[in-house]
Amino acid sequence: MSYKITDTCIECGTCAENCPVKAITPGNGKYEINPAKCIDCGTCSYVCPVGAPEPVEEY
User: Fold this and answer.
1) Where are the domains of the chain?
2) 2-56 domain in CATH 3.30.70.20?
3) Torsion 13-26-46-19 (CA) sign
4) What percent of the chain stands above pLDDT 90?
5) Is pLDDT of 59 > 80?
6) Among 19, 48, 56, 58, which residue is least crowded by beta carbons within 10 Å?
Protein backbone atom coordinates (compact mmCIF):
# COMPACT_ATOMS: atom_id res chain seq x y z
CA MET A 1 0.00 0.00 0.00
CA SER A 2 1.26 3.47 -0.78
CA TYR A 3 0.00 6.94 0.10
CA LYS A 4 -1.23 9.89 -1.93
CA ILE A 5 -2.02 13.43 -0.87
CA THR A 6 -5.58 14.48 -1.59
CA ASP A 7 -6.96 17.89 -2.53
CA THR A 8 -7.65 18.65 1.13
CA CYS A 9 -3.93 19.52 1.49
CA ILE A 10 -3.41 23.02 2.91
CA GLU A 11 0.30 23.08 1.97
CA CYS A 12 1.52 23.46 5.57
CA GLY A 13 4.53 21.18 4.99
CA THR A 14 4.10 19.13 8.14
CA CYS A 15 4.07 15.88 6.17
CA ALA A 16 7.29 16.73 4.33
CA GLU A 17 9.05 17.80 7.53
CA ASN A 18 8.20 14.51 9.22
CA CYS A 19 8.78 12.08 6.34
CA PRO A 20 11.70 9.86 7.39
CA VAL A 21 12.82 9.25 3.79
CA LYS A 22 12.09 12.72 2.36
CA ALA A 23 9.60 11.33 -0.18
CA ILE A 24 7.31 14.37 0.00
CA THR A 25 7.86 17.61 -1.90
CA PRO A 26 5.82 20.72 -2.71
CA GLY A 27 3.69 20.32 -5.81
CA ASN A 28 1.15 22.31 -7.75
CA GLY A 29 -1.38 23.35 -5.11
CA LYS A 30 -0.57 20.47 -2.75
CA TYR A 31 2.35 18.36 -1.61
CA GLU A 32 3.22 15.22 -3.57
CA ILE A 33 4.57 11.83 -2.51
CA ASN A 34 7.20 10.12 -4.64
CA PRO A 35 6.02 6.48 -4.67
CA ALA A 36 9.52 5.23 -5.51
CA LYS A 37 10.87 6.73 -2.25
CA CYS A 38 7.84 6.14 0.00
CA ILE A 39 8.28 3.31 2.52
CA ASP A 40 4.58 3.21 3.41
CA CYS A 41 5.16 4.05 7.07
CA GLY A 42 2.08 6.30 7.39
CA THR A 43 3.86 9.07 9.27
CA CYS A 44 2.55 11.68 6.84
CA SER A 45 -1.02 10.63 7.52
CA TYR A 46 -0.57 10.69 11.30
CA VAL A 47 0.97 14.17 11.44
CA CYS A 48 -1.21 15.94 8.86
CA PRO A 49 -3.65 18.35 10.55
CA VAL A 50 -6.29 17.87 7.82
CA GLY A 51 -5.74 14.19 7.00
CA ALA A 52 -4.72 14.85 3.39
CA PRO A 53 -2.43 11.81 2.93
CA GLU A 54 -4.48 8.70 2.37
CA PRO A 55 -3.48 5.09 1.69
CA VAL A 56 -3.92 3.85 -1.84
CA GLU A 57 -4.35 0.16 -2.49
CA GLU A 58 -2.45 -1.09 -5.50
CA TYR A 59 -3.60 -4.17 -7.33
Assistant:
1) 2-56
2) yes
3) negative
4) 90
5) no
6) 58
The residue count of the chain comes to: 59
Backbone φ and ψ of 4, nearest 5°? -135, 155
Q: Which of 17, 22, 23 minimizes the C-alpha distance to 2? A: 23
| Amino acid identity for residue 41 in this structure | C
DSSP element (H, E) containing 16? helix 14-18
Q: Which residues pair with 3 in a beta bridge?
A: 55
CA separation for the pair 59, 10 (Å, rounded): 29
Per-residue pLDDT band for 57 (boundaries 50, 70, 90) equals confident
Residue 44 is inside which H or E element, if any? helix 43-47
